[in-house]
Amino acid sequence: MNFTVMRTSSFFSRSSQYLLAFGLIALVTGILFTLREALDTTLVALLYLIPLGLITAYLGLGPGITSALTTFLTFNYFFIKPYYTFSVHRPTDVVILVIFLIVAIVISQLVGRMQVSLAAANAREREATRLYELSTALAGLHNDHAIAQILAKQVQEVSQGEAVELSVTGAQPFSFRIPEAHQPNRSPEWVVPIEVARGVLGEIRLWRAAPAITSSEKRLFQTFASQGALALERARLAQAESRARVLEESDHLKSILLSSVSHELRTPLSTIKAAASSLRSDDVHWDSAARPELIAAIDDEADHLNMLVGNLLDMSRIESGVLKPKREWNILSEIVGSVLTRMRHSADEHKLEINIPDSLPFIPVDYVQMEQVFTNLISNSLKYAPSNTVIRIRANIENDLVHVQVSNQGPQVPTEHLERIFDKFYRITAADRVTGTGLGLSICKGIIEAHGGRLWAENMPDGLTFNFTLPLIWEGVSPPNLTMDTETE
Amino acid sequence: MSNAPHILVIDDEPQIQRAIRTILTEKGFKVTTASRGEEGLTLAATNEPDIIILDLGLPDMDGVEVCTRLREWTQCPIIILSVRDSERDKVSALDKGADDYLTKPFGIEELLARVRVALRHSASRQGTQSKVIQAGTLTIDLAWHIIKRGDEEIKLTATEYKLLAYLAANHGRVLTHQSILANVWDPADANHTEYLRVYMRQLRKKLEADPERPQIILTEPGIGYRFIADE
Question: Quick check: is B1 in a domain?
């Protein structure tokens, strides 16, 4: 639509330029005609040059030359005797006429040429501005989509075409189109590849039937395309670099993990190997007191090894984001209860105090994962807190959250370590003093965060408290309120 | 030894096969092993074992599939063996008719206990179902609907009683949430585990000596519940 309006307006402006030129000449001719008897022929010729110069300067070369020829005719017709004919009698008049024609055309040419070069300079300046705008807009962009969008917008603004489509190839090819809805069903008038030294990254397609795309526009769009190519290339390099950095980091983490894991795995394995091989040899008698002890060691260490493998698996699941909680409406006290039942043998040197109100609503959690959180937090407390101390588990509601605390009377953790105890394999004490996997707390943190909650540790006057909060609202739904039968048989 | 219970072990790991065969033979069972699902199905049909121990991860077919195909023609107890992190698989195997499950690695005492439970249940299926179940100081008389702790009678609501009766009648076996909901409530309620959890809490408060550390009705995390009766 836009485009037809533009065409008509340029047509009008061009015809009106000629009309204006003819009008001016008619006006000047009229004025000179009234003064014809008072003016010398040479003076008339000179005065005629004024409108000619003005016309060429303001209306362009075409109207200028046309006016020069027209003036030549009117000059001859109205001002050179015999009047109202195109014949000339006096030789001086012939000379004047010829000189007038030459001067008029030369002036038109000169002024016109100046005009053209001025217009070219202006166009170049506009191009330079466009390019500057484009490169400023593209600078610092590291996203293919954003680059394509800006490039397509600029091409569209400059070309005023019907449609611009920009397609980008690569790992995730896509195309971007302006305007989105409108797509001409013919092949584009102009296609520019977006190229870099390594190959083609995409292309710009432009639909503009008329006015035809000029060579300077083509040159400009080619420059746009190469700017875009540079930006895309830069974005890809930046992405590759950040990928490389992530890989390097994860590589580093993996090697730490491996060395730590091999230490953790070998410790129980060495115990098992030593116990089993001495049982197999004849060193240990059938009735020796060492026998049941060695057997118990094998059994315990096998369990430890199993726990370690389980923890490693869980950790890798958490890190790869596979650990999606399978949520259900659960009762917190049931989860804690089954953990306590399972841990009753390992927890018999400590006193466990549970304070979970009966009125606590259902919580939307994965039962198995929450069991693991409690198991890990309690066994951590059992490990560090001295025997015969109290481990407290409390829960209460705070707004839309359930807040759970697992407190022990073990040693405090220096404030600067409070965050880091949730890091993998992070231990404040030397690894050989406490057995464990070094993963328990990181797994807890991973699980709580996968539930949309928060886990933190804080020092208490008499020990350490693990706190975590979990949202009570699950997918916008509040905990259900169930009615039960209460009548007994 | 011809009267010894016959156990079919379907597991593709030779070490596990060796260990189970050694231990169970030592305990007086007759043991046959299969390392593939198809082979296991054939052996089950020809040997008519008393118990099948089935690994869920088999090379040729899924253990759940083996379970489904076995249940098309036999009521022989099936004990599932699986690695620890496949609650969903365990639940689907149990819902497809498996009787129990064990997580690898497992203690041999555990395995033997499960085998004993399975043998008892397959015996009770053939008629002699005991109607009085003892669990610690708790006595449950399924015929007379009487529950006692020591000499003191415990009053239950209708739903609580139905729940307890279903669990106690299947004591020693793991029952999935779905099977409990379908049997005690309605098959349509099979997804409303929150009902089950609420009633379970009530029931434990009435039955357990320490409801915070249940000993009679145990939670099988992510799977269901198991009633523990005296042997």
Answer: no
Does residue A11 have a pLDDT over 80?
no
Task: Identify from A309, A323, A341, A486 which residue to disrupt to test chain B contact, counting B C-beta atoms within 10 A and taking the largest count.
Answer: A341
Residue A435: per-residue pLDDT: 60
pLDDT score for B36 = 92
Provide the number of CB pairs (under 8 Å) joining chain A to chain B.
78
Q: How confident is the model at residue A347 (pLDDT cuts 50, 70, 90)?
A: confident
User: Can you tell me the distance from the alpha carbon of A194 to that of A230, in angstroms, rounded to the nearest whole number?
Assistant: 9
Q: Is residue A78 part of a domain?
A: yes
Q: Which is it for strands A174-178 and A190-196: parallel, antiparallel or unpaired? A: unpaired
- Whether residue A265 sits in one domain with residue A213: no
Q: Could you tell me if A272 and A363 lie in one domain?
A: no
**What is the count of structural domains for chain B?**
2
What are the chain A neighbours of B197 within 8 Å (beta carbons)?
329-331, 334, 362
Q: Are residues B175 and B121 in the same domain?
A: no
Whether residues B157 and A328 touch (CB distance < 8 A) is answered with no
Residue among B155, B159, B211 whose CB faces A485 most closely: B159
Burial degree of A354 (CB within 10 A; 0-12, 13-18, 19+): middle
CA atoms in the 13 A half-sphere facing the CB of A202: 30
Give the pLDDT band (50/70/90) at residue A10.
low
Smallest CA–CA distance, residue A310 to chain B, in Å, is 8
The residues facing B103 across adjacent strands are B82
